[in-house]
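Quick one before lunch.
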Amino acid sequence: MRTITYSQAIYETMREEMARDPNVILIGEDVGTFGGVWGVSSDLMKLFGEDRVRDTPISETAIIGAALGAAMMGLRPIAEIMFGDFLPVAGDQLVNQLAKARYMSGGKAKVPVTVRVTTGAPGSAAAQHSQSPEGWYMNVPGLKIAVPATPADAKGLLRTAIRGEDPVLFFEHKMLYATKGEVPEDPDFAVPFGQAAIRREGHDVTIVAIGGMLPKALEAADMLAREGIAAEIVDPRTLVPLDKATIIASVHKTGRVVIVHEAHKRLGPGAEIAAMLAEEAIGYLDGPIVRVAAKNVPLPYSPELENFVLPQTQDIAEAARGLATRKL
Amino acid sequence: MAITDYPDEKLLHLYRQMYLVREFELRAINERRAGLIPGFIHSCVGQEATAVGACAALEPTDVITSTHRGHGHLIAKGGEPKYMMAELAARTTGYCGGKGGSLHMSDFNLGILGANGIVGGGIPIAVGAALAFQQRKEPRVALSFFGDGAANEGAFHEALNLAGLWKLPVIFFCENNLYGEGTPQAKQAPVADLAIRAAGYAMPGVIVDGNDVLAVYEATKAAADRARAGGGPTLIEGKTYRYRGHYEGDPMVYRSKEEMEAWKLRDPVTGFRARLLAEAGLAEEKLHALEAEVQAMLDTAVAFAAASPKPQPQTALEGVYGDTDGGLVF
Ligand SMILES: Cc1ncc(C[n+]2csc(CCOP(=O)(O)OP(=O)(O)O)c2C)c(N)n1
Ligand SMILES: [Mg+2]
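Model of the thiamine diphosphate complex:
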């Protein structure tokens, strides 16, 4: 298998799917000539023309709305929103229109729209360019939510999103774009939604790590291993649908769980996972469910403040260690 | 008004402000490279005349909302370079104590309601400020700076409609620099002149040479006078150009060298300087003195920023709410 970056994996998938299906189009701000602000769509406009790769005005409402309308007419649009922080600008089209179109129409509206959007703090980008808004949209039935953490998942989950029948919010973590990993070349390689991955096996404590937190969780697990604590790392890969079975099975094995995400702690994705475990797996737990997440303040600009607000490797290790060494 | 009709002090003030904006930006770019400034910067080099001309037409009690490209607006409205530089350097002495950075600087004492990270985000806020002035019958005006790209956001259209409907004392100042990030304006809007959009909201739409500080000043003064007299809002479009990338580090694949060189022949700062000497008959020594004073001020600003303390991590928890503070985050 070859090793490519997360960013290349996303690019390749778009290129392959656009070549395979003329109904797949890409629209968004600076996705064409500029190749995407994150460089992900690079030469797609050259390859597929200005008709299928469209630079839009700075009009998020129109981007999401146009993707929705075009999907109703049979296209399979990929819409790019540059920062997750800008999703609320398109709030109505996203939450009231796109998410509910199929249900409200009694199944008549078919809206296969993939919204590619970045998430997470790139460092000193401050309060309006650093947020992790996955959780906001978990509360909206009708949207599926993918949080790929590896290049292979970026590819496999994006393919599933584009070929699927539903609106997907596809969260690309800015700090993962340059990360590398093995990615299958099979042009039909896909990762199904709702299937978590065990990234590392262990029997002492489960760490559920979401999206950009995976590298930090793996680092923390290395630290813990040197202390004789075996952490198991579960990557949910999609938050909606959520693979409850894999998370519960891991918790059954370890009896302890830490949930890690970059989103704010209050009502972040971890709140749902914790509630699910409390409802369905409380009997397996030998200690409290612990969340490691961003503190409940807007993301500050200063690196000192930002590092304090964001969850760090040390915080993950400490939380897992605390649970694993707790006297029962 | 002919340049000779302006008092020397006014002309010198306009030049000083533009020179300060330009030199501040160049310093900030250097300091970012040198590592003093951790975040990204969208510089307004080339667009000094819109910021300075427009703010020169406002009273100290008037207010502005600004954008991601806001350093010029702040300086033009009286912002202090040392507090700006300290904010860019993420220090406690900065305008936001290091919490905001370039995208979120503000000074409410000076009527600067904030830069903005969201394109179009400041436009409705200026309408709200104008609403407060109208409600309290205060002779004050709100001015919103925004780019050509922002004129395609829903927020722009909703804000103009409301202001036109309620005849609010607000000025919508579009700095049309021909690009929104890497996309030329021609590919973002089906009209070349965004000022014509004013007609749909029952307000005058005015086009000015955004590189001519006097033209900008006069158009804004007329709009401010009208707004203060209860005549309602105005949309002003200043045609201008940014010299540097959208952000520092932008490879600028989307525009030609020829285009950039052509605009540099119409430089708002050096062009005005030449006019001051040739047409207004000002002595060059006066300009030299003023330039030296600005450079000294910027030396101080950089030194002040570099010497200021970085914030204590725990202070990140302060300031989220107004009445349940003291480090209490819930
Ligand atoms: C709602 C929103 N969409 C997109 C962006 C990303 N973005 C930042 S600046 C910019 C271009 C803005 O163009 P314009 O309004 O013309 O201002 P200029 O940068 O030219 O000064 C874009 C697209 C953003 N910050 N906010
Ligand atoms: Mg512009």
